[in-house]
What does this fold into?
Amino acid sequence: MPITGMEHMASRASKFLIGLFVITGSVMAAIIIIWVGAADFFMKGSIYVTYFDESVQGLQADSAVKYRGVEVGKVQSIKVAPDERLIEVAMKVDLSSDLQDHIEAQLRTAGITGIVFIELDQVKPGEKPSSPAITFKTKHPVIPSRRSDISRFFADTNEIMKNIKAVDFKGLSDQLKNTTKAVETFVAGKQTTNVLVNLESTTANIDKAMENLRVTMENLQSFSESINDNPSELFFKRPPPPKKLMEK
It folds into this structure.
């Protein structure tokens, strides 16, 4: 069937709307890109670099740089340092000059999301620095780095395992066996036997003395009761002969 004038006009209008939609979308996308780029370009702050002696997997350009949870900058670039060992991270940070001389950078992960960012914090008094030594010239001021918590955990674990492996367990076992044998020899020795015999004899003598003391106390108690009952016996009657010490 031949296309009527109304259908032709509707087709042209549809194509026009589609083209207008595509052009409008492209313009809006271009505006967003320009706006984001301009925001980064006009963002306040200075360029600093920090060097990490560990993996920075998960960190990327445009990742956040925070100071105690407050965003103060963005990561600009990530690359291998000139010594081909450290990782150089350049970042644009807006911080006061007084604070810049007393901070460290550390890799952090945002909760369970796995997003990696750089956390800046003041150097803790008395804390041993862990920032790697820089043996080359840098284009921008350097902010010292601090090993991430997970990296320090694995480092401490490895150190503990090395210390455990360094323990001479065989030597300790042999020393314990020798000490046990020495104690057994001492206990079974003649000198120890004599000490035990003397101790038994002394104990027997103490028991005998305690028995004599008990008998004496009984005699004194009996004599005291007799005097209390008849005090005149103390002056007019010859007292009975005392009992022998071993008599009961």
